[in-house]
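Try this one yourself first.
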């Protein structure tokens, strides 16, 4: 699969060899262990606002796309019945699993290729996304629609 990606992107001349190598590696391998130390304090009010929003909703299932170390999901763990985190970084997900209760589920996958059925969740979070890739535009809806 990676070979096909490289071949297609090389054909367009949009990616250099060093960028191809970077995409094959976990870019958070060296920062996952200090990620929460660097960002938790600055994101606290945003995470608390998200928790307040969901506390006032009837959401019982939430997916956090690009969840990193899973801190937002751990904050929501008290009320929500089904919590799922998605991230592409194995190092970030290892930290998330290490810090989280077993009730929170994590998937290692690309945010544009989440292997779940549409309309699975009551709430979707994408609160912090670092990427040099094009914006998400898969046209999918993991959030349940009213009346579903």
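Now uncover the answer:
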């Amino acid at each position: 699969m990676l070979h096909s990606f490289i071949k297609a992107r090389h054909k367009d001349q949009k990616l250099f060899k060093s960028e191809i190598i970077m995409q094959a590696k976990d870019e958070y391998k060296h920062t996952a262990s200090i990620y929460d130390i660097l960002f938790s304090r600055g994101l606290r009010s945003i995470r608390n606002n998200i928790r307040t929003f969901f506390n006032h909703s009837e959401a019982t299932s939430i997916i956090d796309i690009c969840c990193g170390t899973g801190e937002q999901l751990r904050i929501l763990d008290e009320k929500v019945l089904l919590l799922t985190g998605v991230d592409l970084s194995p190092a970030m997900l290892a930290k998330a699993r290490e810090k989280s209760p077993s009730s929170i589920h994590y998937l290692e996958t690309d945010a544009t290729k989440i292997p779940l059925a549409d309309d699975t969740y009551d709430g979707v979070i994408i609160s912090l996304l670092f990427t040099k890739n094009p914006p998400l535009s898969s046209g999918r809806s993991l959030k349940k629609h009213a009346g579903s």
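Discussion: Confidence is low (pLDDT under 50) at residues 1-23. Helices lie at 2-12, 17-24, 35-55, 71-76, 90-99.
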